[in-house]
Design goal:
Multidrug-efflux Transporter Regulator, Chain: A, Domain 2; DNA-binding; homodimer; 2 domains; two-stranded antiparallel sheet; mainly alpha
Chain lengths: 133, 133
DNA sequence: GCGGAAGTTTACGTAAACGTAAAGTAAGTA
DNA sequence: TACTTACTTTACGTTTACGTAAACTTCCGC
């Protein structure tokens, strides 16, 4: 059901665009990660919701739990309008995430080296087989 | 029980070194990711096992399931001594992992930008509060 | 030789992230 | 009007990755 298309989407549009099930999308709503409006019973998703869904899936690719992603949304949403104490806490969370990402970058770099090595060995083995020795 | 220490480790040594529970380590064995030898009943871990454990944990940080990590181990182990067909399959798997890692790098880069932005906003908010305006 | 620490197996429990079936509604269409 | 299609809620089932308790065995120090 392609919705009015000013800037809104149906659940199946999003599902097929991002290749997830409607079940998943509803589950993300259940977990307070998405907040579509309703036209009667039917869910109507805004462009913002679409972005959020994209971010959720990105989070998954990085191994984040839905809870963690929700935390990140909180970081992003909280237009920093809190007390000094809250702001310090927010900064701490941000730094924490940043160091975790640094760690991930390291991990990925190592894995890439190993895969490259495996690739080389594989290539050599293929050459052995091809060679007319 | 610090074992003979030529190059072997007890389960609790590994557990405390990597800050995981012994339960987890035993579970990884159950899932065919580790293969400690036995001294009587007791598990004895080699340096190789230790490396594997480290790799398992790295995998977890990258969001890999234990099954995926086991697959990676297979890639690594299979000293490429198979048929051409098998080698091509191996190469395909390696490429697949590599592109997945590229995707992850992209994802991380994006997230880093967003976190930097959040950090900036946070700093500005703190300055607002501090300023004697 | 006895208590405590560290190891073991067996087995049931649990949280996260959905899958899947059941049963119903609402809109468009032949 | 009947049929199809897309959407909905409710609710139980499933997989992964362990946690946790129970009930041993082994070894070490005193």
């Amino acid at each position: 059901m392609p919705i009015s298309h000013t800037t809104t989407f149906s659940i199946s549009e999003l599902a097929s665009e991002f290749d997830v099930t409607t079940r998943s999308i509803r589950f993300y709503e259940d977990q307070q990660l998405l907040f579509p409006t309703r036209r009667g019973q039917t869910r109507v998703y805004s462009a913002q919701d679409r972005v959020r869904l994209k971010l959720i899936l990105r989070g998954k690719r990085l191994g984040f739990s839905l809870a963690e992603t929700r935390e990140l949304f909180a970081l992003w949403d909280e237009t920093p309008t809190g007390s000094m104490k809250q702001l310090r806490l927010l900064m701490a969370k941000i730094e924490e995430k940043k160091t975790a990402l640094e760690q991930q970058l390291n991990d990925i770099a190592m894995l890439q080296l190993e895969l490259d090595s495996a690739e080389t060995r594989c290539r050599e083995a293929m050459n052995e087989l091809t060679a007319t020795t």
